[in-house]
Structure formats: C-alpha cells, structure tokens
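Pinned message: reference record for WD repeat-containing protein 82 isoform X1
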Amino acid sequence: MKISDSVLRSFRVARTYGENSQKVNCVDFSPSGENAVSSSDDDCIVLYDIREGKPKRTLYSKKYGVDLIRYTHSDTQTVVYSSNKLDDTIRYLSLTDNKFIRYFPGHTARVIALSMSPVDDTFISGSLDRTIRIWDLRSPNCQGRTNPLGKPVCSFDPDGLIFAAGVESQAIKLYDLRAFDKGPFASFETRFTRVCDWTGLKFSNDGKQILISTNGGMIQILNAFNGSVLHTFSGYNNSRGFSLEACFTPDSQFVMIGSEDGRIHVWSTESGMKVAVLDGKHPGPINTLQFNPRYMTFVSACTYTVRSHHHVNLIWTELFHICESCSSSFNRDSGFRVWTTFKGMMVK
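Predicted structure (tokens):
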C-alpha cells in the first residue's frame, strides 16, 4: 500500500500500552517490522509483538538504567543501549536469556546518540564528551573515534557507508566510514531562526535528505549531498523546550513529529505542506515517534504509555472494534500508542 496524504490523515489509535511508571525514552522497530522494543526511565525494557498487538515480555536494567535502545543488525534477539544511571558504558544484551553479551566502555560522559549500521555489526555513538566512537559488536574495543569539536548527534546513512555528525547545533559533517580518520569529506553549516539545540539527526531511506530535530519548536530537512535547506517546519507546540523525536515515513515522502500537546504533525517532504495533524489523546509531550519500516504502523510515546495507531478503512470493519476498545484507555495515565493500517498491509 502506498503512503499518501489521505492515508496519513486516516490513521487512528489501535492500541494503548501502559507498561511503564516513568517516561518512555526510546522505541525501536526490528528490521522485519514485526517486533518493537522500548526503554524507559523506570529501567524497563519492554518487548512488543506488533502483529499480535501486545507486549510480550518486560526486562529490567535496574543497576545501569536504559536509554537509546536499538535492535542490532538483522537480529530481533539482541539489543544495544546506553546507560542513564551508573556510567557511560554501552551494553549489548541478549533478549533471549536476559544476559549481557558484551560491554563497550570508553565514553567519559553521557551518550546522547546511538546508531546501528543497516548492513553489518558496526554502530556509532555520540557523547557529551564531544566524541563520536565507532564500534563493532564482536569486540569490546573502540574501533575508532572522531573529535568533531562539539557536542555531537550522529546517524548512519541507509547504505552504512557514511555517517553524519551534527556538531554544536550549527554544522553537519559527513564522514566516510572507511576513511573516518581523515576527517569529514564534506561539512556545511545551517542555522535556525531561533536559538535551539539539535537533539537528533536522521537520513531518509532514499539517502537524499537529512532530518534535524531540535528542542525549539522547529525541524529542518537538508539536501544530503550539498547541505542546502529544503524545508523548515514549525507550527507545533514545544514552548518548554522538550526533546521531541521526528521521523521520516519509509518512502521518504513525509516527515512527522509529536508536540507537547499530544498531537502529531505531518508534512510532505516534496511540497513542504502540512498534510495531517493526528490526535492520539496523549496527555503529555510526545517525545518518541517511530514509523514501522515494513508495515503501515507507527508508534508514539509520551510520559508513560505507548500507543499504536491504525489507518482505518471501511473494508476492514474489525479495526473499528479495535479502536473502540482502545478509546476507554485514552484517559489512563500517559502513554505508548500504536497506529497502523489493515493487518498485514505492507508499505510500498
């Protein structure tokens, strides 16, 4: 099924989960799109079965805390995540037996960015120690590091050959993974019209665009090849400076972000026009937002809950029953919500 303006406008909440007692700080889909994992400030790791629409298991990281959780490449049974409590070591966890496979020490301040390679076991991390480190899941030793001279956010491109570093909320530097020690091969500055911190960096799946998230009520899309500004999007509430995650749809045609009033705003990356505002009845700021890489589903999370959202079509009447059964949970604490289209419908 092709994603379009009308499809996006017809998404509805299909599931609401209240598994956590504190903020859900990160959600990630497995490469197959059939599983999701969340991390939260109450030290919980919750595993979800997207096809069944229910949580499967809860694990705990009480000693170290858990943040920036990521599935590893092509594996739904292992994750890496950063600590938000004891130290700045990154941990590699088996979800099957709840045991650590490996530790990745090296950072001397909190890790604020974590990106898995889409093609192999490499991953990168950015830290408040003003370094980006390159790792391989098979070794605890850092494989290399860059010093971009500022607080970095970072992300791999969809081919796993290049990574981008957003530095000091004012410049993007592009590195060739095979020659990162030679420094960036391209660098370009971009500024917003208001003072804000960059909180995230993402490539579109076609590799042509870079999305910059901020805490200032504005996001920006750049041309990934020359750094020119394609669009600047605003008009969503973030007066208190929350770190709100933005994301592309899998076809790279739309970008979406939550807001502090619990709504989700969607723009076309081609026209720059806002095409939808979705209300998932989140009682707080939507800090986490991810679109499923394979199915017509996305998840949004605020303080405690996760919600799953479904695109409703008259042909699939069972989804109306699903949505009605969820409506009573809208007034529960806060949440993780899942939104999706008809069962089994793949994204084209």
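Pinned by admin. Summary line: The first strand starts at residue 11 and ends at 17.
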